[in-house]
What does this fold into?
Amino acid sequence: MNALGWNCGGLGNPRLVRVLRELVQRWKPKIVFLSETNLKKNRMEKEKFKTGLLNGLIVSSVGRSGALAMLWSRDLTVEVQGYSRNFIDVVVTNSESEFKWRITGFYGNSETHCRKETWDLLKSLSQKDQLHWLCFGDFNEILSVEEKLGGPPRAQRQMDDFREAIHHCKFKDLGYCGPDFTWCNMQEGDRRTYLRLDCALATLEMD
It folds into this structure.
């Protein structure tokens, strides 16, 4: 089953809504997690119909920024376990086999001084249901210097804290295909920085 996660940077732009619809049509995901939609709930409710995924949970933006959405197809049985400005956590049940698994769309705080709160939140989520767990999204942090190109050096402590949180949750990084970096600050010259901020993590073994 396919799942799609995207930091869309604001779905108020009709072009990005078209891109989202094209991604859904191409990859046919059963679940889509969106961060930074920058839309209030009533506006996002209207936009979700354009994707063809009619069920879901929407967390409204605060002011003109933020907001999350998790959308899923009608043939899935989904139970919402919790949500906040930083995550949407659900349990999915396969209608044929009754197999249950957990998926969390996660958005890490973009402010460096709030990262400890981000990792504490991730660790607290790991204490919930002991199901096979996929956690994916924009964590706003990197795991190593190889996930960065250009710009000032990344503080080693920041990366260490992220790795420690992943270890605590017993996650494995599922890796990726495609571009090495998922974010660019769009600055010129030596100030331009590329980072891999998006990743998919999973618990591969049960206790």
